[in-house]
Amino acid sequence: MLWKSGKNSGRSTVQASDSGMVLDANDRDVIEACQRGDADAFRALFEAYKDRVYSIALRYSGNPAAAMDIAQDTFLKLLSRIGDYRSEASFDSWLYRLVVNSCIDDQRRGRRMTPFLDGLLDVVRAPAESVLNKLMRTETDQRVQNVVARLAPEHRIVIVLRYTEGLSYDEIAKILGCSPGTVASRLNRAHKILERRLSWCR
Amino acid sequence: MVPINDWLEPELRRGLREVAAPPDLWNRIQAPQAAPSKRSNRAMVWAMAATVILAAVGLSLVRPPARDASRQMAFHCENPAELRAWVRANTGLDVPLQTAPQASIQLIGARNLGASVEIAYRAGNRDAVLSVSRADAGSANLAHGQVSGNESSWVADGQRFTLAASNAADLQLACKLCHLD
Fold this sequence. Notes:
The structure holds 2 protein chains of 2 kinds. By secondary structure, chain A is mainly α. Chain A has a domain at 1-114: RNA polymerase sigma factor, region 2, helix turn helix motif (Rna Polymerase Sigma Factor, Chain: A), CATH 1.10.1740.10. Chain A contains 9 helices and 3 strands, in the order βββααααααααα. A 3-stranded antiparallel sheet of chain A has the order 1-2-3. Chain A is globular, with a radius of gyration of 19 Å. Helices cover 31% and strands 27% of the residues of chain B. Chain B is globular. Chain B starts with 7 loop residues before the first helix and ends in a 7-residue tail after the last helix. Chain B has 6 helices and 7 strands, in the order H-H-H-H-E-H-E-E-E-E-E-E-H. In chain B, strand 2 (105-112) and strand 3 form a beta hairpin. By secondary structure, chain B is an alpha+beta fold. Chains A and B meet through helix 2, helix 3, helix 5, helix 6 and helix 7 of A and helix 1, helix 2, helix 3, strand 1 and strand 2 of B.
């Protein structure tokens, strides 16, 4: 069976091309096919989740090279552990846990740079008349990413899951294996830090 | 829900928005790993890991370890003493950063470009970069001189310094990275 990725109402889906049926990525058939070793099903899952996995990795690490390492690690873990997945649990949450663990593993392997300097000289050294415009256009997003990348890991991951993925407190709590109250506390602390460091955005 | 200022959440949503994965991510996954089989995938992963480790050990015997530029070439740090030590250890250059700069100076980090090092920081609320390299042999000290609208260059103690600020008016404040007055 050949599986293809697709989009449906903004949600990632996978599609069984020979039947034309569009399935939710949590659909048991696709996952079971992947568990049986169906390479096309794995490709379909990859296509459905690659942007989410990469985005979490990028926003957490602040480094495209690190994000590629983390995303690769996550999908290799998915491939090797898909047999452990039990359908009574949410596949999204299960995969998010793999990503989070890969992010933490990467962090433990050593401190990385964030690409905080990339483009900075170009902006600073641009002709005077364009400096302000360029700074205004790029600086805010870059500073947000840089400031988030400097948060403590426990604060950073809740911010990324909350604002990159739009997850609820309960969903974040399930992924991190803590209580919603702990998530709220970490978010509150992270917000205060970010508010202070990004106050110039106002 | 945790109360939060109105401006912060939109900034976070925009700054941390989801992005598309690079097209070569699939190739990265394919390269070390064949398609899943009905055999134990975990065993296969361990076997591949062992192969990779053995190959790496073999390679390390015949050539120096490769260095990942993104991991070795830059240092994200807000502490002047730590940053100065990192620059000295990685480039041999000595940048006399103020150990306790005024609050308007906020270090971001440094990048080793081989022939030079760039120190990025915020002066006031704007970006500034100090680039330092070895001066040509026999170069005399050259007082701070403005060479373009938002750059200033000089030579001191055998090192060439170039300071770039977001605009010319910020240069004086940007000097506080190394100077008290």
